[in-house]
Amino acid sequence: MVLADLGSRVAVALRKMAQAPLVDKDVLNEMLTEICKALLQADVNVAQVKHLRESIKKNVDVESLASGMNKRKMLEQAVCNELCSMLDPGKEPYAPKKKQANVIMFVGLQGAGKTTTCTKYAYMHKRKGFKCALVCADTFRAGAFDQLKQNATKAKIPFYGSYTETDPAQIAAEGTAKFREEGYEIIIVDTSGRHMQEAALFEEMQQVSDAVAPDEVIFVMDSSIGQAAHEQASAFKKKVAVGSVIITKLDGHAKGGGALSAVAATGAPITHIGTGEHVEDFEDFEVKSFVSRMLGKGNIAGLAPE
Amino acid sequence: MSKLVGGGPVTAEAMAPVLKALLDRLVEKNVAQEVGAKVIDAVGASLVGASLPTFGSLASTVKAAMAEAFGRVLTSPREAADLLHDVSTARGGKRPYVVVFVGVNGVGKSTSLSKVAYYIKSNGFVPLLCACDTFRSGAVEQLRVHAQALDVPLFQKGYGNDAAQIAADGIAHAQAMGATRRLAMGYDAVLVDTAGRMQDNEPLMRALAKLVHVNSPDLVLFVGEALAGNDAVTGFNASLAQYAGGKAPRLIDGVILTKFDTINDKVGAALNLVYTTGKPVVFVGVGQTYEDIRNLNVEHVVRALTG
Ligand SMILES: Nc1nc2c(ncn2[C@@H]2O[C@H](COP(=O)(O)OP(=O)(O)OP(=O)(O)O)[C@@H](O)[C@H]2O)c(=O)[nH]1
Ligand SMILES: Nc1nc2c(ncn2[C@@H]2O[C@H](COP(=O)(O)OP(=O)(O)OP(=O)(O)O)[C@@H](O)[C@H]2O)c(=O)[nH]1
Ligand SMILES: [Mg+2]
Ligand SMILES: [Mg+2]
């Protein structure tokens, strides 16, 4: 699993600390150094790693802590808490409501997995009893409409798009209006990939957003992204109202750390993860269980905060 | 750190904090921690005992040595493939030059392939696009759009079929076209698109290895994103070697580094890829139009890394 390397290295650092005859400042520092190195190697944002280190140092006063087991437990807990808070912006994600139209717009960098994830998201919600539809507002990428169409057809989800219209805002507006009228509950708008360096593309994203007035904007991020994650995610957030994040391709060998920066950058929670190319390769995301799974549940059970 | 310490010999102790700070900077630039540490350690070791120039700071000396080391890494792969020359040679031998594009999902394989087609065509050759991503929805149509826009031929057999066989058929088709037409009118290159896959997905890596080993392409290009923090390339090479099917393993010959326009100065992926493969960056993708393809500007990368 992704972040498994990171998890086991953090677990090793914790165990090493637990084995030290006396846990003092030096032992704490050594543990933090190990953990921070592991985080950096997993592509976690440099500033976030610094923050984690300082925060633990500030919150845990090793010298004054009671000795023995408790001290170690407290330190383990502190590390776990920091990892959780790195992943948890403390905000509830948007929950689509039945018997009304929920327009959900997908945005993200080129090739992140938006189009694939749109269908996965629709498919998951369809199985939960929502009436779902897809709108292809990507008029740029070659074959974009065929891709969405073929995915939607396989998953038996209605779709809307055009081979000739070149204005994505226009198609998005038409598609959402049509599906609203027909009483669809979740209307998903797929958009082209874009990046912060190209202002015209960001402008276009805003136009699509203005045209459909989405109830939710989902930022899709590839788990293999490295140190550029933070600035890209922040830039998207500045332009449109990103409300939640989906991390894709977690079935790969990605170190995953860069994508985690998306949380800090957008202040939006991760709601789902993509774990493969097929429509059912999609899971709900829950911070605490993810972190305890990452740290290898077996080794340090019950570590995740209650 | 930057105070003048001119004159005396450099000690490992004096250098340690300088090296540490530089490594942090490199990681921020998306250099893989392990790669950065190795290069920096080597630089550090090479400087111990050297005497500083009278008016230089330790930091600037280390930095200069580091820039030199990066330059060496990036330019060390020999035979940076000269694509046009090789296509032309193949044409002389009356056979098409075959390039296979491989990589993980969504990195820009198909787009890069169409950029290379444009480049080849602009130089007077005829490339045939060969649609061997028979899995991802819309993959065939995507190539068809490119073929039409570029006015180049497309070879495709739809979805669900054996990719290795389609590549073989595409190459045979190009060969036949070369034989039937006047030479200059034949297909000079076959550009084989493949489905994205994760390097630890065994069945998919097996299928890719088969495609490569059955067809013995002239060039296997690994397409990797400048955005990526990790690099899957090691896993691709390992799989190509492991599933060679008894033949001499055919590994990656070069790299296309895509989405270079999305990373500002975080250029570390260039170093990571070259360092781990020892293969050249053949092209850099700098945007989403056909013209957005460049050679790697080593000086630019070194400047960004040390700046
Ligand atoms: N292995 C794996 N592949 C995925 C996952 N999600 C998406 N992909 C693949 O990633 C590639 C890119 O996905 P797309 O959905 O086309 O990405 P996109 O963001 O719509 O791309 P653009 O529209 O070009 O910006 C495709 O090959 C998908 O099959 C995942 O969770 N795991
Ligand atoms: N900004 C930028 N975008 C790029 C570049 N190269 C490719 N892209 C975009 O990245 C996205 C994915 O490109 P594709 O060529 O479909 O990627 P792929 O590797 O073939 O994807 P799969 O076949 O699904 O694995 C598209 O939106 C491209 O326009 C580049 O150099 N810069
Ligand atoms: Mg798309
Ligand atoms: Mg492709």
UniProtKB/TrEMBL annotation, chain B:
Tell me the keywords, alphabetical order. GTP-binding, Membrane, Nucleotide-binding, Receptor
What residues does the SRP54-type proteins GTP-binding domain cover?
A: 280-293
**What GO molecular-function term can you cite, just one?**
signal recognition particle binding
Per the UniProt entry, what are the Gene Ontology biological process annotations, in alphabetical order?
SRP-dependent cotranslational protein targeting to membrane
GO cellular component, alphabetical, reads: endoplasmic reticulum membrane
Task: Identify its membrane topology class.
Answer: Peripheral membrane protein
Keyword flag GTP-binding? yes
Main location (coarse class): membrane
Q: Which Pfam families match?
A: SRP54
* Annotated InterPro entries: AAA+_ATPase (IPR003593), P-loop_NTPase (IPR027417), SRP54_GTPase_dom (IPR000897), SRP54_N_sf (IPR042101)
Under the heading SUPFAM superfamilies, the entry gives: P-loop containing nucleoside triphosphate hydrolases
Domain of life the protein comes from: Eukaryota
User: What subcellular locations does the record give?
Assistant: Endomembrane system
The record's note on quaternary structure and interaction partners says: Heterodimer of an alpha and a beta chain.
Q: What's the family?
A: Belongs to the GTP-binding SRP family.
What name does this protein carry?
Signal recognition particle receptor subunit alpha homolog
Q: Which organism is it from?
A: Emiliania huxleyi (strain CCMP1516)
Its lineage reads: Eukaryota, Haptista, Haptophyta, Prymnesiophyceae, Isochrysidales
